[in-house]
Every structure is written in C-alpha cells, then in structure tokens.
Give the backbone structure.
Amino acid sequence: MSAIRDVRGGAFRAAGRACLLIAFGVLGFAPARAASNFPDIPVWINVGAWKDSSTIAGLEYRCIGSFQGPLPDSVHRQAATLSVRFMRDRATEARPDFGGYRVYRMQNTPDSSKAVLIRRFSINPGSELTWNFSRVTKASSVSALLNNGAGAFGPRVALPTGVTPIAIAVGDVNKDGKQDLVVATQGATTVTELFGDGNGGFSGRAELSVGVFASDLKLADLNNDSRLDIVVTSANSRDLVVLPSNPQGGFLLPISTPVGKGPSALALADVTLDGRLDFVVACGGSDSLYVVASTLTGQNLGFGTKSFTAVGSRPSALAVGDVTGDVVPEIVVANAGSNTVSAFRTTATSSGILFASLGTIPVGIEPSGVALRDVNGDARADLLVTNAGSNTVSVLLGNGAGAFTPQPDVPTGTTPRGIVVADLNGDGQLDLAVANQGSNDVSVLNGNGTGAFSAGSVVPVGVGPRGIAAGDVNADGKPDLFTADFSYDLPYLCSSSAVDDSIVTFVDPDSNGRFVKVCRDPGVEGGRCGSPGDSIFILVKPPGPHDGFLTWYSITIEKKNTTDPDYEDLFLPDTLNNFARCTDPNDRGTCPNLNHKLRNLAGPLEPTAGPTANLEKVLAVPNPYRGSEVWDQPGQSEVHFINLPSQAKIKIYTAAGDLVRELNHNDTTRDFERWDLKNGAGQAVASGIYMYRIESALFHFQSRLVVIR
C-alpha cells in the first residue's frame, strides 16, 4: 500500500448532535410543550426499556405502573427499543369528549403527515383490543366514614359515582325514611343519587340529568311538597339549575336561569323574608355575589328577581346566617384570590335585595370553605374558614354585631377545602371536619366549647376530596362523614391487571420497524377502514441492515366517539367553553387543533442495542452505498459504522491510501457512528472503493466500502 498522507486540510471535528437532557435521572429528551390554548402533554423519550418500581410481572416492558422515582436500573438496554413517557392531563381527561391518548411514531423526519399511529389508550370500544393495547375506563367515587360516636371513624367505604365528584349532600331523597346521598360531578351532566339502606350501606344508584356540569349542590324542600329538591350551579355554563321533586316520586325536568360568570358556590336561605328559600350564589368568574329570589305558583317552582354585588377576588365559598342578631340573614363570602372574607347585611325590597358591607375580614391563604356556627356557646354566630394555601382553619368569634375576633389558626392536612361543623365525638361541643384535597384525608378537630380546637383523628379517604357532608345514615344518632373525592382512577388495563399513573410509560420494542394499516374493507374515505373495528396494524421490517433510524414520538388526545367508527384525534367544538373556541362550532375547519402532532413532540433518538465489547461484528452499512438509504435526511447521505464499542477511532482512506476522514466515536448509548460521505474539507466524496480502519484500545479492524453515486 502507498504511504498514507493526510489530505483533510486540518483537524476534523465530528458534527455535534443535539444535547440530551437528564429526565427522571435517565438519558432522555426534554418534555415537549404545547402552544398556548393547547392541552400541555409533556413527552419524553429514552433509549432502552424503562422499568420502574411497579412493573407488572411477566410484562416488564409492556405496561408500567405508578412512577415512584427512578431506580438505579430504571432503563435497561434492549436492542432497537425506545421508552416513551408522557404526562396525563387530568383536566382534559375530565372533559366529556375525552376519549383517550394516542401514540404516534415518525421515522427519519418529524413530518406529522407521515406519523404512524402505533398505540392507543382508549375509552372508545373497537380495534385497540385487536392490536394488543389498553382499554381505558374512568371511575370516581365518594368516601363514606361511619362514626363510632367517640370521634373515631371506620375505614373508608368507596361508593362509585359519576366522574370527578365535587360536592355532596345528605338527605332522604326518595321518602323511604332512610338517608341518601346526592353527589354533584364535574365530568358529567348528571348528579348521582345513592340510596341508603338505613344501616350505613347504600343499595342502589341513579344518575339524574341536570343538563350541566355541576360545581356545587344543595338539597331542600323548595315547593312545600315535603320532598327534597336538588339545586346545582354550573361554573361552565353560568347556570343555576333546580331539579324539582315529583310528588308521585322521582324528579321533574330541570329548570334553570343564568347568573354571573363562573358560579362556584351555592347556599339556600330565605333572604327575601317571604317564607321561601332563595338561591345565594358566589360567582368566581365575575367576582360577584348573586341572590335569586324563588317563586312558587301552586307547587311549580320558578325564579324571581336577581340582585348582585361585587365581592373580593375569586369567591370560592359562602355561608348564610344571622351574624348581627337582627333575625335577618347575612352572607359571608370566602375570596380565594384576595385571602379575605366579605360580609354583607341584606335588606329585602320590592325591587330586590340591597347589600350593605359589614367589612372585609383577612384570613389565611386561598380561603376555600366557610361555615357559620356558634362554637363558643354565646348564642352568636362564629366564622370558620378553611385556607387551602396555608393548610389551616381560621376561627373568628362573632360579637353579635357583625364583627369578628380572630383566634389562633388551627392546622389541618394539605390543601383543606370543604368544612362541616357537628358534634362528632358526643361530648356536647361542636367539632370540625375538614376535607384535605392535597393529603387525601379528613382532619377531625375537636372543639372544647370555648372556640378553641385541638387535633383529633386523621381519616384517610379517596384521592382529592373537596366537598364534605355530615349526616346520620345508620340511625344511631351519630353524625357520619362523606367526602366528594374529586380525582378519579383511569386504569390502564394490561393482561387483566390495572395500574394507575400520572406518568404513562410506553416501551416501543418495534421502533426499528414500520406499522402499516391493513383493512379487510379498505373503504373510500381518507384511508379509513370501511367497517367498524377493522383496524389491523402489521409490523413491516424496515429496509436497511441495522437500527440507526432517527425516531420521533408524538402524543395526542383521542375524541370520545359515539357515532363514527373511525376515532379521530380530538378536534373541538368546545363543549365546555373553556378551551380554545371555534369561530363557527359547526365548521371544524375553524376550530383550533388541540393536538397538532408537532405540538406534543419528542425526539429524535435512535433505537440501538448499545456498545459492543469488541470489534468482532463491526460493519459498514449499506455496502455498497447506492445513492441513498432509508435513514437519509433530505439533502443528506450517510453510511453507518455499526456494532462499535463505546470508544473507537474510524479512519477512512481512498484506495490509494490517502486519508479522507477521521471520525472519533465516544458514545455510551449508541453502537454506531455516521459518515456523511464527505471528506475533512466538507466536500462530497466521489464514487469509488474506500478502505476503513477502526481502532479501539489494542484492537483494530480493516475492511472495504463501495460508494456508488
């Protein structure tokens, strides 16, 4: 061989690749972020197979459960395998049109028009079971805690309800002499009725349509028929809705009237002093307080005069009671955005209610629940406020003239929301029970009759309790507790085992392949299969001898579908009116695409088996190179040197022995190095026969490579 000469014109530096981010303590890409007004679905990808602390036996790389922090061996090297992780969007999952998640793969280009749907986590029935993936169902519940009379409560009993319960009330709704539960849910336009059996259990369930997604709920006999009516507010639709009882049993059709924006809390009281209960509503979207008078013609309910006044920022809860001793109800409103309580005296007139401020009372951070009760035995109403941001209850003793004296705050669990006042331990003094959304429990605070409270029991409940109610459901004279557990389970079913996770991991063991959709009846519209459920994906082995394909992944949200057998990505019209709105709800072209595949994109990475121990299996591929290869990017050409150890030096020569290019391979993840078919000066090499030498430690390997342009 001729003497080797360096014709590169300077030292060669390998082209830099994008930096990888340490995500969850392993090598991966930063989470993709959605644009404004789009659901934010962070996505990560990692080389190798993910395995965490709740792996399901026998399916180690198929279905991963609750993420409890990375273990030292969380990512396992596995040939041609990538792990995709994405963060669930629970707000989107609560939408009635949410149908599931989709995983798309793009190879060699992030062009979303070439994205291939490879997996689904779907609520929709159909083809997902055909190609071995997960069927998803949503389930929520409320917690029942039976009181032993000494302030201790039995273990939680979960009672299934509609999705995302937010408020709960106790009463004999079906007139059988036994206490029932009624639950407002934000994920459905119904309320759930649970029929009590009189012994502390519940023997049936009914879903009652109210036509809106409820934000609060109360029970009362509004039409004097000795049967309870159901009243709800809806922060999404700005509606106040009454479901009147039917004298023959059950309920009549709901009636409604609009109030201010974002009605978030509700109370019932005779504010107009006409002997009928009126509707008092705090509107968090308009920072206002509404009083809607009730009307009654025979036993037909209606709505009368509406009166309103401004309150503090983001009112979240309210209570009605006589705080001035004039036997006229006053209203207190907890303002979560301004950390205050607004108090108002009301005066009924022929034209509506007049509001007179009794002052603004500072409390803790983000007040979220409020109650008025006499907790120190002086026959004057006292004020009790849960503070979600400071994890306390503010206790303020009333003086009977509309003013309050603050007492030391009482610690609670994390993010306290709802509050009820009752004698829970049978000592004749009023106690407090607080639903803690952040710590998933109820704090029982024992009162001593002077306005002071001490820590009692902490009772575990379901996930995210917000509403709380007390009532005696087993007729033992002791108040039992019930919480509306706002969160829900979205189990991913995997070989009959269910797991629940806020971070979903999907390991793609076929990432060096292509899925091709095959239909028995191809159909004629947009590539859709012509028959429902006919969506079979076949793995087609890619061209090319190894796994060096650039791979991107995208996560989108699937629309819940009741009519079309082809389940599309979620485009709106927006049924809840709180995401990006359509210009014309009847024209899908005017609706923002909430799941553009490039908005929720992660990559690229290359699936690889990882470095080899020696040079025994080193190859240059393809060989010969014939003008292009499937992994080539537009305007680029590549030859890959594969099966490399973690450190190696690659030298490429002409047949005459001139050094063309030197590549330094230093990579603990990939087992290959790219050559862009250019010399050290950045010029494309010509067709011909080239020699390459690979050196690693004390070993070397030499062979030939043919380039045909």
Observations:
- Residues 377 and 480 are 23 Å apart (CA to CA).
- Residues 90-93 form the longest helix (4 residues).
- The helical segments are 90-93.
- The chain has a mean pLDDT of 76.
